[in-house]
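Late entry, written up from scratch paper. The run itself happened at the end of the previous shift, but nothing got recorded in the book at the time, so transcribing now.
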Amino acid sequence: MNRTELRFNITSEFDVNSAVISTGKFVTALGCNESLVHVFMTTVSELAHNIVKYAGIGHIYVRKIHRTGSIDIEIVAEDKGPGINDIDSAMADHFSTSGTLGLGLPGVKRLMDEFHIESNPDSGTRITVKKWISERCES
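Output as recorded:
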Protein backbone atom coordinates (compact mmCIF):
# COMPACT_ATOMS: atom_id res chain seq x y z
CA MET A 1 0.00 0.00 0.00
CA ASN A 2 1.77 3.13 -1.19
CA ARG A 3 -0.89 5.75 -0.57
CA THR A 4 -0.65 8.84 1.58
CA GLU A 5 -4.39 9.28 2.25
CA LEU A 6 -7.44 7.14 2.88
CA ARG A 7 -11.02 8.48 2.63
CA PHE A 8 -14.10 6.81 4.06
CA ASN A 9 -17.78 7.63 3.81
CA ILE A 10 -19.31 6.64 7.14
CA THR A 11 -23.01 5.76 7.23
CA SER A 12 -23.17 2.38 9.01
CA GLU A 13 -21.38 -0.14 11.21
CA PHE A 14 -20.11 -1.80 8.03
CA ASP A 15 -18.39 1.46 7.06
CA VAL A 16 -16.91 1.77 10.57
CA ASN A 17 -15.44 -1.73 10.37
CA SER A 18 -14.07 -1.14 6.88
CA ALA A 19 -12.42 2.12 7.96
CA VAL A 20 -10.86 0.50 11.03
CA ILE A 21 -9.45 -2.47 9.10
CA SER A 22 -8.12 -0.29 6.25
CA THR A 23 -6.52 2.10 8.74
CA GLY A 24 -4.77 -0.82 10.41
CA LYS A 25 -3.37 -1.99 7.07
CA PHE A 26 -2.33 1.56 6.15
CA VAL A 27 -0.27 2.21 9.29
CA THR A 28 1.11 -1.34 9.32
CA ALA A 29 2.48 -0.68 5.83
CA LEU A 30 4.28 2.37 7.28
CA GLY A 31 6.14 0.05 9.66
CA CYS A 32 4.27 0.94 12.84
CA ASN A 33 4.41 -1.59 15.65
CA GLU A 34 1.29 -3.48 16.68
CA SER A 35 0.62 -1.25 19.68
CA LEU A 36 0.64 1.91 17.57
CA VAL A 37 -1.49 0.23 14.90
CA HIS A 38 -4.12 -0.43 17.58
CA VAL A 39 -3.98 3.21 18.69
CA PHE A 40 -4.91 4.34 15.18
CA MET A 41 -7.56 1.67 14.75
CA THR A 42 -9.13 2.57 18.11
CA THR A 43 -9.13 6.26 17.22
CA VAL A 44 -10.85 5.67 13.88
CA SER A 45 -13.35 3.33 15.54
CA GLU A 46 -14.32 5.87 18.19
CA LEU A 47 -14.65 8.77 15.75
CA ALA A 48 -16.54 6.75 13.15
CA HIS A 49 -18.94 5.30 15.74
CA ASN A 50 -19.70 8.85 16.88
CA ILE A 51 -20.55 9.81 13.31
CA VAL A 52 -22.98 6.90 12.96
CA LYS A 53 -24.50 7.44 16.41
CA TYR A 54 -24.93 11.22 16.41
CA ALA A 55 -24.91 12.43 12.80
CA GLY A 56 -25.86 9.41 10.71
CA ILE A 57 -23.43 10.27 7.91
CA GLY A 58 -19.96 11.73 7.69
CA HIS A 59 -16.41 11.19 6.52
CA ILE A 60 -13.10 10.01 7.93
CA TYR A 61 -9.76 10.91 6.38
CA VAL A 62 -6.50 9.26 7.39
CA ARG A 63 -3.42 11.02 6.04
CA LYS A 64 0.32 10.56 6.15
CA ILE A 65 1.80 14.05 6.44
CA HIS A 66 5.45 14.86 5.77
CA ARG A 67 6.93 17.69 7.79
CA THR A 68 10.53 18.80 8.00
CA GLY A 69 12.25 15.96 9.79
CA SER A 70 9.09 14.10 10.75
CA ILE A 71 6.05 12.20 9.62
CA ASP A 72 2.62 12.47 11.21
CA ILE A 73 -0.60 10.59 10.78
CA GLU A 74 -3.60 12.90 10.76
CA ILE A 75 -7.15 11.65 11.18
CA VAL A 76 -10.07 13.95 10.40
CA ALA A 77 -13.66 13.07 11.22
CA GLU A 78 -16.35 15.39 9.92
CA ASP A 79 -20.10 15.40 9.69
CA LYS A 80 -23.00 17.75 9.08
CA GLY A 81 -24.95 16.53 12.10
CA PRO A 82 -26.49 18.50 14.96
CA GLY A 83 -23.13 19.44 16.48
CA ILE A 84 -22.00 19.18 20.08
CA ASN A 85 -23.83 21.60 22.38
CA ASP A 86 -21.22 21.60 25.16
CA ILE A 87 -17.73 20.63 24.01
CA ASP A 88 -16.25 20.99 27.51
CA SER A 89 -18.73 18.48 28.89
CA ALA A 90 -18.26 16.14 25.92
CA MET A 91 -14.52 16.12 26.63
CA ALA A 92 -15.01 15.17 30.29
CA ASP A 93 -14.58 11.53 31.25
CA HIS A 94 -17.88 9.69 31.80
CA PHE A 95 -20.07 12.37 30.18
CA SER A 96 -22.51 10.87 27.70
CA THR A 97 -25.74 11.98 26.10
CA SER A 98 -26.47 8.47 24.84
CA GLY A 99 -25.99 6.26 27.89
CA THR A 100 -22.48 5.03 27.01
CA LEU A 101 -19.41 5.10 29.27
CA GLY A 102 -18.49 8.56 27.97
CA LEU A 103 -14.83 7.74 27.35
CA GLY A 104 -14.66 8.04 23.54
CA LEU A 105 -13.55 11.61 22.84
CA PRO A 106 -11.48 11.99 26.02
CA GLY A 107 -9.82 8.66 25.21
CA VAL A 108 -9.03 9.75 21.66
CA LYS A 109 -7.48 12.94 23.01
CA ARG A 110 -5.26 10.90 25.35
CA LEU A 111 -4.16 8.57 22.53
CA MET A 112 -3.14 11.34 20.14
CA ASP A 113 -0.41 13.99 20.27
CA GLU A 114 -2.68 16.74 18.91
CA PHE A 115 -6.45 17.11 19.21
CA HIS A 116 -8.72 19.82 17.83
CA ILE A 117 -12.52 19.92 17.77
CA GLU A 118 -14.89 22.34 16.08
CA SER A 119 -18.63 21.99 16.38
CA ASN A 120 -21.57 24.13 15.43
CA PRO A 121 -25.29 23.33 15.19
CA ASP A 122 -25.34 24.90 11.72
CA SER A 123 -22.38 23.03 10.24
CA GLY A 124 -21.79 19.84 12.27
CA THR A 125 -18.59 18.64 13.86
CA ARG A 126 -15.00 18.36 12.68
CA ILE A 127 -12.39 16.61 14.81
CA THR A 128 -8.75 16.64 13.73
CA VAL A 129 -6.15 14.55 15.54
CA LYS A 130 -2.48 13.85 14.87
CA LYS A 131 0.06 11.35 16.05
CA TRP A 132 3.75 12.01 15.46
CA ILE A 133 5.12 8.73 14.17
CA SER A 134 8.54 9.43 12.66
CA GLU A 135 10.32 8.09 15.74
CA ARG A 136 8.00 5.09 16.10
CA CYS A 137 7.60 3.83 12.54
CA GLU A 138 9.83 3.38 9.57
CA SER A 139 9.13 5.95 6.92
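The chain has four helices and five strands.
(Scratch paper discarded after transcription.)
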